[in-house]
UniProtKB/TrEMBL annotation:
PANTHER family: SGC REGION PROTEIN SGCQ-RELATED, ZGC:162297
Pfam families: BtpA
InterPro entries: BtpA (IPR005137), RibuloseP-bd_barrel (IPR011060)
Official protein name in the record: Uncharacterized protein
Recorded superkingdom: Eukaryota
SUPFAM superfamilies per record: Ribulose-phoshate binding barrel
Organism in which the protein naturally occurs: Penaeus vannamei
Family, per entry: Belongs to the BtpA family.
Length: 205
């Protein structure tokens, strides 16, 4: 079922090419150097580039908000700014091309809210099943609360794709659980798809 939902969403026989829009540092973060209008305009320019390139999907992420806060500590300014950015991106990217969002770090509930408000098709979630130690701290599984929240706001049309054995993290506490078993657990807990990466951004899977 999960694979069929992925294929239905991206509608391509080959591997889907998803363009990343890394929003510059948001208000209140240590690296912030731009006002909200500037942040939005830079994201718009990236969206136009992906539209011209003909990618299969677009994912918006607050990549430059380092050092990251974990979900419960994220402020309303993050959700507000990402909503504004995603509204603009969604208005540029053709409707046939799915758009998604990830809010770092572990802002899965916040991402669902933005996704629902902006008409996005998916989110990238962290720590859906099992716990791990990320560079932000200890993260615990969120599948139960996250999918109940999705149901409560009527966002079941927003798919949840989840990282397993996430990069930039230590997994010694689940060293007896392999990648395949982790993926099976995510499937059992109703993830719409899983994401595999290397140990860090830019490294091989």
């Amino acid at each position: 079922m999960a694979l069929s939902r992925f294929k239905d969403l991206f509608q391509c026989s080959r591997a889907a090419v998803i363009g990343m829009i890394h929003v510059k540092a948001l208000p209140g973060t240590p690296l912030n150097r731009h006002g909200i209008n500037e942040l939005v305009e830079m994201a718009r320019q990236e969206a136009f580039a992906y539209k011209e390139a003909g990618v299969d999907g677009v994912l918006v992420e607050n990549m430059f908000d380092i050092p990251y806060l974990m979900g419960a500590s994220l402020g309303p300014e993050v959700v507000a700014t990402m909503t504004r950015v995603c509204q603009e991106v969604r208005s540029i990217i053709p409707k046939r091309i799915p758009c998604g969002i990830q809010i770092l770090a572990g802002g899965n509930k916040e991402a669902l809210a933005v996704g629902k408000a902006c008409g996005l098709q998916f989110i990238r979630a962290e720590c859906f099943v099992f716990s791990h130690v990320a560079d932000e701290g200890l993260m615990n599984a969120c599948a139960g609360p996250l999918l109940r929240y999705r149901r409560s706001i009527g966002a079941e049309d927003v798919l949840v794709f989840t990282d397993i054995k996430k990069k930039h993290s230590a997994h010694s506490i689940t060293s007896d659980v392999g990648i395949a078993d982790t993926a099976e657990a995510a499937k059992f807990f109703l993830a719409d798809g899983v994401i595999l990466t290397g140990s860090a951004t830019g490294t091989g899977s």
